[in-house]
Amino acid sequence: MSAGFLLVLSGPSGSGKGTVSEALMEKNEDISFSTSVTTRTPRPGEVNGENYFFTSIEDFENMVEEEELLEYAFVHTNYYGTPKKFVFDEIEKGEIVLLEIDVQGALQIKKRYKEAVFIFLLPPTMDELRNRLVKRDTETEEEINTRFKNAFKELDFVGEYDYFVVNNEVDDAVESIEHIIAAEKLRVKRHKDIKKEVLAEKKGDL
Amino acid sequence: MSAGFLLVLSGPSGSGKGTVSEALMEKNEDISFSTSVTTRTPRPGEVNGENYFFTSIEDFENMVEEEELLEYAFVHTNYYGTPKKFVFDEIEKGEIVLLEIDVQGALQIKKRYKEAVFIFLLPPTMDELRNRLVKRDTETEEEINTRFKNAFKELDFVGEYDYFVVNNEVDDAVESIEHIIAAEKLRVKRHKDIKKEVLAEKKGDL
């Protein structure tokens, strides 16, 4: 009596969605991680179908046309997208599929697949978000300012999400997401015929 | 950043909602238990406003007319109902209010107050439900048969609920409800302006 679903973990740069996502996967081996499709060249050691599904630009654009992607984006010189087939196959098997994605991507998915569970990861404060962007030391000051301004705007979209989780401590954020997963497994709407399931079950099997 | 809500725990006779409800309250002292209003005479030791709000038939019928009740029923010779005021005052304070009620009552509430969280408690099997009804030893065989048939019919209404919880072991059922409560506290829709809350918070306060 288990029903899978897509869990979209999203939030602005600096909310810590990458770290939380990794910690969540480490603690919950039964969660599938959504594998993206990309047109970029595989790096040494990257395995097709594991790190990414690697594909040509032509094939990618075909997928877009055929509506085979839940969302996609063009970043620098490459396409990245989320293939429906992988996600839906896993859900069909009763799996929970985690997709960690920026706010723009999550909003695209919301339009195409409302059945997903949308979590908005929040920084405890905007000061803390800026600290995290600075600490990463991967962007110039100008880039940090841009990301900060974007984060500020992206907070306007929290109303499109189902849940919010404040990422003050990674462990607490992971625990909150675990509660959400446990609750969503018990959603009536994900089960076609609970009465039939109860009537069919032998004692203790449900 | 806490928002209260009404948690309706419901299910057929023999699903164990009374036992689960008690165990849940014992473990979670911060949950309020919804106090019913009734026209029956207080038993020795019962305190007005604690066990029940005791009232006259006239006042009760006035409350019905003024739509001051979330649900009510006439059982044997007495009225029982759930006063809106108590529930809404607690919610306003940010409390979680637990209401344990039969399926008919829950469906009444669903019509009047969709914002509540509705949990349907299921027996692991219909055989087990019958065992529980027999074990209580409070009803005649005929009454047990009636309750069993009603339980069977009431399963048709599970689709009106948000969540289902299988009561195989009381502790597991309580844990499932705790997950649901934790998740529902993180619902975006219960918070008017999360952006404002983030911007207003000092580090670590959210």
Automatic annotation (TrEMBL), chains A, B:
PROSITE patterns: GUANYLATE_KINASE_1 (PS00856), GUANYLATE_KINASE_2 (PS50052). Its main location: cytoplasm. The keyword Nucleotide-binding applies. Its EC number is 2.7.4.8. It catalyses: GMP + ATP = GDP + ADP. Pfam families: Guanylate_kin (PF00625). It is found in: Cytoplasm. Residues 4-182 form the Guanylate kinase-like domain. Gene3D superfamilies: Guanylate Kinase phosphate binding domain (3.30.63.10), P-loop containing nucleotide triphosphate hydrolases (3.40.50.300). Keywords: ATP-binding, Cytoplasm, Kinase, Nucleotide-binding, Transferase. One of its GO terms (molecular function) is GMP kinase activity. ATP binds at G11, P12, S13, G14, S15, G16, K17, G18. It is an enzyme of class 2 (transferase). PANTHER family: GUANYLATE KINASE, GUANYLATE KINASE-RELATED. NCBIfam families: guanyl_kin. Essential for recycling GMP and indirectly, cGMP. Belongs to the guanylate kinase family. This is Guanylate kinase. It comes from Peptoniphilus stercorisuis.
